[in-house]
Design a protein that fits this description.
Elements (H helix, E strand, L loop, with lengths): L7 E2 L19 E10 L2 E11 L4 E6 L5 H9 L6 E6 L3 E4 L11 H8 L1 H15 L6 H16 L5 H11 L16 H14 L4 E5 L7 H13 L3 E5 L3 H7 L2 E6 L4 E5 L2 H39 L11 H31 L23 E10 L3 E9 L3 E5 L6 H9 L6 E6 L3 E4 L13 H6 L6 H11 L16 H13 L5 E5 L7 H12 L4 E5 L3 H13 L1 E4 L6 E4 L7 E7 L2 E2 L1
Parallel strand pairs: 4-8, 4-9, 6-7, 7-8, 13-17, 13-20, 15-16, 16-17
Antiparallel strand pairs: 1-6, 2-3, 2-5, 9-10, 11-12, 11-14, 18-19, 20-21
Helix pairs in contact: 2-6, 3-4, 5-6, 9-10, 15-16
Length: 584
């Protein structure tokens, strides 16, 4: 398999990307003086990071900051522009997209993952055939290999594959199926099962929960928490971050740095809040000091005399004035020198965090916003009746393959049902689960956002900045160069600023940074329109339940009266579960 499609690396690539040491007493990862970027955009500079054996680490940061790039460098699949990446021990690596050929069968993928283990089995078989007349060194080698095989629990590899496939929702999957015949989510789950079939000393996983349901995610959490080796995971799953990570490494897009935090995810959040507060205090202190020195210089220089001149005392006045002038000049000079030093050592302004600054008001009409009658898709969606009243908030959960995304596609009109019909009222916006490849990859971000929205480009730029999902510096980036998270944010921006009365949202937290997810939840809680949402995100499910229990008040445009949304399974906050293509 090529480097781009490999899911297991038994030793780091030779050269600058990494080195391998079999004699190391402690498997670990180390970056020394690493700098990296693409074109004229530098992601991080002068990074020094050490990850010790058995440490469980989460990599977090804004979308597009370079988290996946950092993981590829750690895995040895990408060489840094400067510095070195060193690994000790076998490395299992899962990319966001597996990269294996579509003509590969499931069996081919499993064979590739177990290649080194089966090579070890073959060598043991070869040595066993000659044990009767073996020399001492061959006996020692056989013993060492047998120990390795036992430590890797090679005898249980096949059962681990079956268990992983089953717990990831792929039990009974025909191993002769090609990857190209599977859905994108199924392909990624096969890749994850392959990585876990022969657990490496070091597991490097990029967004492993993106295509998992609640039970699959819970199983993966337990599996990673129990892993005796090193775990490094890039994830936006807030529950997983809290349960698995003892250390957090943040890729800071503003400072182009990589920073390490202890005490788990909660400790990271506390330290980040304290760090931002200290930074803000230092910045405002610097501004105050600058203003004080300017005021001092201007005040002293603006004085016109030392005291009132009295008749007959001109000689004394001239003496005092001269003394004052010298003192004033000295004070002005000292203030200007202090001001010069402050200007020469500025404190950068703390960056404004990306935030979801949008007003999601919408007119709420009477009657249904959506009404599906007997809609069905063979093999994916059983005949379904589904009515969504205007202003309702509905969360649909359920295992993978239950038909949730199919139902949402039918409601949105992007998938025509084999039978039945859907009646839609008002403007409907749809955020799909799978990212669509840009049709014009060279198109810049701002024109891509504005496409089809009408109005002028300056108005769209202002609206996009107010939303807070992008900065001005990103407006000219080609959409083909955007990360998965940035592409997701672009689709989200078009949805939120589209003026839709009804929003259909499929896995809205995929590829979004945890802080943005929390801000999205806050914005959606104020949405006056209709919302139908599919999600596996457990933290988002808890948020939805909290909103449903407490109810939410809003002011409508109909006489400015107050309405309350009631929860507990009644009123406007409803939760459904789908199984086997049917709503429960």
């Amino acid at each position: 398999m090529t480097a781009g499609g490999a899911i297991l690396r038994t030793q780091a690539a030779v050269g600058q990307a990494g080195t391998y040491c079999e004699d190391s007493l402690s498997e670990h990862l180390r970056l020394s003086g690493v700098s990296h970027g693409y074109g004229d955009r530098q992601l991080f500079a002068g990074v020094d990071v050490a990850i010790t054996a058995g440490e469980h680490v989460a990599i977090v940061g804004e979308n597009g900051a370079g988290k996946s790039t950092l993981l590829r460098i750690l895995a040895g699949f990408e060489a840094p522009d400067e510095g070195t990446s060193v690994s000790h021990g076998r490395v299992g690596y899962l990319a966001q997209t597996h990269g294996m050929p579509e003509q590969f069968t499931v069996s081919d993928a499993i064979d590739a993952a177990l290649e080194s283990l089966r090579a070890l089995e073959a060598e043991l078989d070869r040595l066993e055939d000659g044990l009767a007349g073996a020399e001492a060194d061959e006996l020692e080698r056989y013993g060492n290999l047998q120990t390795q095989y036992q430590l890797r629990e090679g005898y249980a590899a096949e059962s681990r594959v079956e268990a992983a496939l089953d717990r990831l929702g792929l039990g009974g999957l025909d191993r002769m199926r090609t990857l190209g015949s599977l859905s994108g989510g199924e392909q990624e789950r096969v890749a994850l099962a392959c990585v876990l079939a022969d657990p490496a000393d070091i597991l490097l996983l990029d967004e492993p929960t993106n295509h998992l349901d609640a039970s699959g995610t819970a199983w993966l959490e337990a599996r990673l928490a129990a892993h005796r080796g090193t775990v490094v995971v890039v994830s936006h799953d807030r529950v997983l971050l809290r349960k698995v990570a003892s250390t957090v490494i943040e890729v800071d897009a503003e400072r182009r740095s990589v920073n390490r935090y202890g005490n788990g995810y909660e400790g990271y959040l506390r330290e980040k809040a304290a760090e931002r507060q200290r930074w803000a205090q230092q910045y405002h202190g610097w501004l105050d000091a600058m203003a004080a020195e300017r005021l001092q210089a201007d005040t002293v220089a603006g004085k016109m005399g030392y005291a009132r001149q009295r008749d007959g005392d001109k000689m004394g006045f001239d003496f005092k004035a001269g003394t004052w002038q010298k003192a004033a000049t000295s004070k002005v000079r000292n203030a200007q020198e202090r001001l010069r030093r402050l200007e020469a050592n500025p404190i950068d302004r703390p960056p404004v965090p990306l935030k979801l600054a949008t007003d999601l008001r919408a007119d709420v009409a009477e009657g249904p916003a959506l009404e599906a009658k007997g809609v069905a898709v063979p093999g994916r969606l059983a005949p379904t009746d589904f009515r969504v009243e205007a202003g309702q908030k509905i969360l649909i959960t359920g295992p993978n393959g239950a038909g949730k995304s199919t139902l949402l596609s039918v409601l949105a009109g992007t998938l025509e049902p084999a039978q039945g019909k859907v009646v839609r009222h008002g403007r409907i916006g749809y955020l799909q689960q799978e990212l669509e490849l840009p049709q014009r990859p060279g198109l810049r971000l701002l024109p891509a956002f504005a496409a089809g929205l009408g109005g002028n480009i300056d108005e769209h730029a202002e609206a996009l900045l107010r939303l807070g999902l992008f900065r001005t510096s990103e407006f000219h980036v080609p959409v083909g160069s955007l990360s998965a998270g940035q592409q997701r944010r672009l689709a989200l921006a078009r949805l939120l600023l589209g003026g839709f009365g009804t929003m259909l949202v499929d896995e809205p937290t995929n590829h979004l940074a945890p802080v943005l997810v929390e801000q999205l939840e806050a914005a959606l809680s104020e949405f006056a329109g209709t919302l139908v949402m599919v999600s596996h995100d457990r933290a988002l499910g808890e948020w939805f339940s909290t909103c449903a229990r407490r109810g939410t008040s809003r002011e409508t445009r109909h006489g400015a009266r107050q309405e309350t949304w009631h929860g507990n399974g009644t009123g406007n906050w409803l939760r459904y579960t789908m199984r086997d293509g049917a709503l429960a």
